[in-house]
Write a structure and sequence with these properties.
With 80 residues, the protein is mainly β. It has a single domain, classed as Nucleic acid-binding proteins (OB fold (Dihydrolipoamide Acetyltransferase, E2P), Beta Barrel). It has a 5-stranded mixed β-barrel with strand order 1-2-3-5-4. Strand 2 and strand 3 form a beta hairpin.
Length: 80
């Protein structure tokens, strides 16, 4: 029997917005190759992140980690 623990999903991104209480919006970019044209492009996705105490500042590079659902759209928590 395999008893290994899976690590939760983690991303590094930049804080874009901190206007709401206990929530930050983090933009995570990834570098992917286009399947047809074979050129590389940057794709960005924004995640709502649980930030208790509003500790993050706009422009700060942070690490986010997957957690249990906190609200309808928040599935990540601020790690660093």
């Amino acid at each position: 029997m395999n008893t290994e623990q899976k690590k939760p999903q983690t991303f590094r991104g930049t804080v874009v917005k901190t206007a709401t209480k206990d929530t930050a919006v983090v933009a995570v970019s990834r570098y992917v190759k286009h399947p047809k044209y074979k050129k590389y492009q940057t794709r960005t996705k924004k995640y709502l992140v649980h930030d208790p105490g509003n500790t993050a500042q706009v422009g700060q590079v942070v690490t986010i980690v997957a957690c249990r659902p906190v609200s309808k759209l928040k599935r990540f928590a601020l790690s660093k």
